[in-house]
Each structure stands twice: as structure tokens, then as C-alpha cells.
Design brief:
CATH topology of the largest domain: Rossmann fold
Strand order of the largest sheet: 4-3-2-5-6-12-11
CATH architecture of the largest domain: 3-Layer(aba) Sandwich
Helix content: 10-25%
Structural class: alpha/beta
Radius of gyration: 19 Å
Number of strands: 12
Strand content: 25-35%
CATH class of the largest domain: Alpha Beta
Shape: globular
Number of domains: 2
Length: 283
């Protein structure tokens, strides 16, 4: 699995792996059992991907290809949603986390806050009372669903699409996810969190075994505070791996008429060497 935004700002001159004894686990993570990563994760995620734009032309092209409103599932802090809204598309965003939705709302221009609807809900079980020309799921979010939940989500998505509507999702490339290895002691990303000015280092402990259809990734965000201590946010994730054929068959069972699979945002054909899986299904 490839990790993005690997730049290292000049002020990030520390390695939190050398400060293990100073790291503190945020106590508030234990106050919200439904969010094992704690309350800081939305802030950290927004900062980590603030400058990532590589996928935006792909979503904008899809948005312009057909009529009807757009729904982004798992919209998070609104990185993609805000760009679609600013481009003039009618767009709704759904996320389970109210803090993610609050951040998504705050990054929308005032003129765009009226026509944009932000909804708290489960991406596998939602009922919104309207249908869409495009439903999208960026950033590997669909991969957090196991097979049963994924099929339930696909059926729900199909019910919310207009005739001829399109569902599009980005997922990990199964071959690369199983073969890619990272040293959990070395940071794979570094950035400055703008709300605090604190430098952050990101680590990943990825585990996969032959024959399994998922990979486990324990993400760790280490935030260096001005007093020299490190506050740690841990985000355990399980990513289920789909082949284009398997996901296409699941989409067919949910009522989709056709599907395509690409290996990158430029729509090159999917192959064993593809960095990612872009899946598009038509109602």
C-alpha cells in the first residue's frame, strides 16, 4: 500500500521514535468508545491531506459527465466535497463522525453552505429521500467494510442512484497492499498541523498474511508539543481487499448493469502492478 504526502517540512527535525518514553496517550480517546482513534483524528486527517490534489481531476471529470446531484459517502473533513461545491455542483456529504462534518462545513465558502447538505449517517445504511447522478467514495473508505457490509452498502447505493447514475470508489490495489512493507519504526509522513503549529510524524505498522483478503494497519500520529512532549493518536484500521472481478460481481448482485476498473486516476487499465483500484459501476 502506498502512502501519500511524504514531504518533510524544514521544522520537522525530530523523530518521535527516539522519544518513546515521552509519548502520552490521549485520555479522551477512552471517552468515546465508538471512535477508537479519539477526538484528535479529524484534525490530524484534515491537516495530513490538505495539500493532496492528485485525485481531484478524476472526481471532477466524473461529476461533469452526467446530470443530477452528487453524494460523497465518507466525506470526512470535506477535501473533495468542498472542491465539487466550489466548482458549482450540487453535492451532499455523509459521514458517521459529527466532527468530520463540522470541519467539512467550515471549509465551504459561505455562498456554498446553502445548497450543500451534510448528513450524519452510516455509509452502509442510509436513507436520504432523494436520488443522485453520482455517488462517490474516495480515499479507500469503501475498503473498511467487510464483505457483508460492502454488499449491503452497494445495494443501498444502487437504490439512491438515478437511472443511468454512476457509483465510483477508490480502493487499495490488492496486489500492492499485500506485497508492500513498511518499517513501523520509521515515519512514512510528516507535516505541520496548522491549528496548533505542532509538527506531526505518521507511522504505519502494516500486517498481512497470504490467503487473507484484508490487511491490518495500525496508524500512529505523534504530535510534538512546545514543551517537548509527544501526544500520540493511534488509529487501528482493517482494509478489505477486492479484485475488480469480485467487486464487479458484488455490484451486479446489487443491481448495477456494468462496471469498469482502472489502475490510477488517469484511467489506465488495471493490472497487477497498479498503484490503486478505481472502480466505476453504472446503474
Amino acid at each position: 500500500m502506498r502512502y501519500r504526502l511524504r514531504y518533510t517540512p524544514d521544522r520537522l527535525e525530530y523523530n518521535s521514535a527516539d522519544m518513546e518514553g515521552q509519548a502520552e496517550e490521549p485520555s479522551r480517546a477512552q471517552e468515546t468508545p465508538s471512535k477508537p482513534w479519539g477526538a484528535d483524528f479529524p484534525r490530524l486527517l484534515q491537516a495530513q491531506y490538505a495539500s493532496f490534489q492528485e485525485d481531484l481531476p478524476f472526481w471532477l471529470t466524473l461529476a461533469a459527465s452526467g446530470p443530477g446531484p452528487i453524494l460523497e459517502l465518507g466525506c470526512g473533513p470535506g477535501r473533495v466535497l468542498s472542491v465539487l461545491a466550489q466548482a458549482g455542483f450540487e453535492v451532499d456529504g455523509l459521514d458517521y463522525d459529527p466532527e468530520m462534518l463540522r470541519r467539512a462545513a467550515s471549509r465551504l465558502p459561505t455562498s456554498q453552505r446553502g445548497p450543500v447538505s451534510l448528513i450524519q449517517g452510516d455509509l452502509g445504511r442510509f436513507s436520504l429521500g432523494r436520488k443522485y447522478g453520482l455517488i462517490l467514495l474516495p480515499c479507500n473508505t469503501f475498503a473498511i467494510l467487510d464483505e457483508s457490509a460492502a454488499e449491503e452498502s452497494l445495494a443501498c447505493i444502487r437504490r439512491h442512484l438515478l437511472p443511468g447514475g454512476v457509483f465510483a470508489a477508490e480502493l487499495p490495489s490488492p496486489h500492492e497492499a499485500l506485497e508492500f512493507h513498511v518499517d513501523p519504526a520509521e515515519p512514512i509522513d510528516a507535516f505541520v498541523e496548522p491549528e496548533t503549529g505542532n509538527p506531526i510524524q505518521v507511522y504505519a505498522d502494516q500486517r498481512a498474511e497470504a490467503g487473507q483478503n484484508f490487511v491490518q494497519v495500525a496508524w500512529r500520529y505523534d504530535e510534538l508539543r512546545p514543551d517537548g512532549t509527544v501526544i500520540r493518536t493511534q488509529v487501528p484500521m482493517l482494509y478489505y481487499l477486492w479484485s475488480p472481478e469480485g467487486l464487479g460481481e458484488a455490484a451486479r448482485r446489487s443491481g448495477f448493469s456494468s462496471h469498469e476498473a482502472f489502475g490510477d486516476y488517469d484511467r489506465r487499465p488495471f493490472s497487477l502492478d497498479s498503484r490503486r483500484l478505481l472502480f466505476i459501476a453504472c446503474a
